[in-house]
Write a structure and sequence with these properties.
14 helices, alpha+beta, 407 residues, two-stranded antiparallel sheet, five-stranded antiparallel sheet, Glycosyltransferase
Length: 407
């Protein structure tokens, strides 16, 4: 089984308030020039990819270069989380018409799924134009396996994790149009069906008609749900998710645990986003010390003082820098007034920006996370590659614009 943190993305194998609440960047700060450059450069390939499409579109999550199994498996993969995040970054950058195209593509995917009609979204879809005139055509991505002579689909990509669905709700609520409100409410209905005694379960993995349940409970995903439910005015559901997040705070260590295992016990592993996102979402809740935990346990080079760190790993084995998470830290460091440290991490993102404009997902060929996808029980098979990554660019742009997905 996978860990309670869950995975938004797969490994290299065959993440009632007014609905129209605006998604706004925080007020501008001093010394804008470096941040303006990072925001422009981070957003540029996202903007170009959406603008090149004539209508609703889902963007490919990773660059693929044809060298390894990862490239074959991910040749057409558009992860729901990555695309929702990209839409939020476009919206923060004043590109509402482009953000609308991604939001509409996700709405059409919900409406046109080849099997599901209950409001859920899959973890990934085939990248490219989504046509309103093609009912029941939305499918998970796949690839041709020449050795077996058959078309294959990844069980994680075909499944539905709670966090990615919640991020679609965040985008839809930020856009605010009535069709997006309807889509968000439908998704929230499905999410509420994941309710556990404490928080909400991870979702499902595998193909229709009977995917397997993900019985763990994730701190990070419940943070997503708490914000999404709150935006929809579902106060009780939001409180239930938020209660789980707060319950995983470990006061002696001043950080969050990853979540709960299927038997309800605390998974004490250390995950970057599970610690940074609650501080971004609830800046006055007394959890700010979690940032220092992350710096001490995830920072690279290992053992370096914060002022000499270059970036952060996903987990605490520190085998490489996770660019998406490092960008998340940039945003939080800026909001906590630690601009010099934020700028150092931002420089790392810039160094790992490729000639095509995409920021690499990792500083090493294969970055371990300690997580499993659930496809191979007990195996930590969820890895990040050194490929250009949509979510890394989106978070870098959000950090540069001082804008949070959580408002």
């Amino acid at each position: 089984m996978s860990t309670p943190e869950g995975a938004r993305k797969p490994p290299a194998l065959p993440r009632r308030l007014a609905l129209a609440t605006p998604f706004l960047a925080a007020p501008a700060r001093a010394a804008e020039a470096p941040w303006a450059a990072l925001g422009r450069d981070g957003l540029a390939p996202i903007r170009a990819a959406v603008a090149a499409a004539d209508g609703p579109v889902l963007l490919k999550s990773f660059t693929t270069e044809g060298r390894e199994d990862f490239d074959r498996v991910h040749a057409e993969v558009a992860f729901t989380y990555d695309n929702a995040l990209a839409g939020l970054a476009l919206l923060a950058g004043g590109e509402r018409p482009l953000a609308f195209r991604i939001g509409e593509a996700l709405r059409l995917a919900q409406e046109q799924d080849r099997h599901w009609t209950d409001g859920r979204l899959r973890n990934a879809y085939a990248a490219g134009r989504v046509h309103a005139e093609a009912p029941r055509s939305a499918r998970p991505p796949g690839w041709w396996d020449a050795a077996r002579g058959m078309w294959l689909e990844d069980g994680y990509q075909a499944g539905s994790a709670a966090g990615p669905v919640a991020f679609a709700v965040l985008l839809w609520t930020a856009l605010g149009d009535p069709p997006f409100r309807h889509a968000a409410e439908r998704a929230a209905d499905w999410l509420e069906g994941l309710r556990a005694p404490s928080g909400y379960r991870g979702g499902t993995i595998g193909h229709e008609p009977t995917p397997d349940p993900l019985p763990w409970v994730s701190t990070e995903q419940n943070l997503d749900l708490a914000v999404a439910f709150r935006r929809l005015g579902r106060a009780e559901a939001a409180a239930h998710a938020a209660g789980l997040v707060r319950s995983t705070w470990l006061p002696a260590q001043e950080r969050f645990a990853m979540g709960l295992t299927p038997d309800g016990s605390v998974n004490g592993g250390s995950a970057l986003d599970a610690n940074l996102w609650p501080v971004l979402a609830w800046p006055d809740a007394g959890f700010a010390a979690a940032l220092d935990w992350v710096l001490a346990r995830h920072g690279l080079p290992a053992g370096a003082p914060p002022a000499e760190m270059e970036g952060l790993d996903f987990n605490d084995d520190r085998d490489g820098i996770w660019m998406e998470g490092t960008a998340q830290a940039v945003l939080l460091l800026r909001r906590m007034g630690r601009e010099e440290h934020a700028a150092r991490f931002a420089a790392t993102l810039t160094r790992h920006r490729r000639e095509d404009g995409w920021i690499a997902a990792a500083s090493v060929p294969w970055l371990t996370t300690g997580l499993g996808t659930g496809l191979r029980p007990g195996v930590a098979d969820f890895l990040y590659p050194a490929r250009g990554h949509l979510a890394a660019n989106a978070w870098a742009a959000l950090a540069a614009m001082d804008a949070s997905p959580f408002g």
